Amino acid sequence: MNLPFALNSEPVKWVLIVLSSPLWVPFFKALWKEWNDSLRDEGGVLGFAPTTKELAAINRREGLHRSTMMSETWDEYERRRAAPDERRTRAAGLPTAARRSFRAR
After folding, report:
1. Considering the entire predicted model, what is its pTM?
2. What is the CA angle 62-68-70, rounded to 5?
3. How far is CA 76 from CA 26, 61, 88, in A?
4. Cα–Cα distance between 12 and 35 in angstroms, integer?
5. DSSP 67
């Protein structure tokens, strides 16, 4: 098979990088924002450290930084996910088991 171009050539590699950018660009943007926000006391990733007055103004404008990348176990996740359902069930006066079944008991 004699193709006019090779699949392992530079143009093909660049085309693959550009075409796959909708997959990896949002990830890197979110990662960059998280790094920059978490290091804002030190001036961000590439900036200079702000003075105490500038830092106070940033905290007033944007609020204190709370990391969105938190470690959570499966038990904590299940407990957090089930909590609103149990509150609704108790408010409706139904037993907890009733919300998991489709047929009347």
Report:
1. 0.48
2. 145
3. 28, 32, 19
4. 32
5. -
